[in-house]
Amino acid sequence: MGIKYKRNQRLIAMTHQLLRHPNQLMNLQSFADQFSCAKSSISEDIEMIRQVYEENQMGMIETLTGKTGGVIFRPQLSTQQIEELKYQIRDRMQTGQRILPGNYIYVNDLLQDPDILNNIAQLIASYYAKKSIDVVLTIEAKGIGLSVAVANFLNVPYVVVRRKSSTAEGSTISINYISGSHQTVKKMELSKNSLPPGSRVLIVDDFLRNGGTIIGLANLIAEFDSEVAGICVFAENKAKERMEIPDYQSLFETKLVFDKKKKHYTLQTQAGNFLENFEQA
Length: 281
Fold this sequence. Notes:
By secondary structure, the protein is of the alpha/beta class. It has nine helices and 13 strands. InterPro entries: PRTase-like, PRTase_dom, Pur/Pyrimidine_PRTase, PuR_N, PurR_Bsub, WH-like_DNA-bd_sf, WH_DNA-bd_sf.
């Protein structure tokens, strides 16, 4: 039996554990054993936490009944936090030298900001939390940080597809794909042990331009007898000629507009289809 705690002490400890284990079923009896109290007392504690979290849009607390039941914490951002995030990123996108050769947009500094990264990852995870995601997948290298953060909030593994695998990864499956507007043929590889057959995969990446990389990832996933359960990118540049990508989500859209007076391109940023149609799952 554990140490006997007062209710306020239990509430602090339980809240901390729920925050550290998002989207993970936690057994009520294990809480009761840990805090040396009745399971009914734990249920009352959970209800108190649930009310506070839901009233303040801090997350959803779900309880499952039965012998193997428990509690699941599903994090979310409040409506105000989402609006503030939209304006914060839109303002940041107007600063610095963001237009790169080939019409790519520099977003690394945004996804290296821990506050922005965690908020974006939590937002993506809250949308896909109930879509039975088994794995979060990305391609090296810029999308890795975001995919790891999303996987953490979803409580699922993450997988990184390599452009060139190392011997440490063992045998791999590779495919060729067309990347960029110049129709360049490239190769991507994934270790055979990385993705179990039948996995439902969420593709996460930092930036979408032509769509060739995303199509390549989808084709590679099919080689593992798995399926794409969702596609979500941080930002996209609305290209005139883009490969057809089914049912993808982008948090932000960027557009290059030529300024005749200044005689150079400027960058416009707005919320993408993800944020425009976002509903907490």
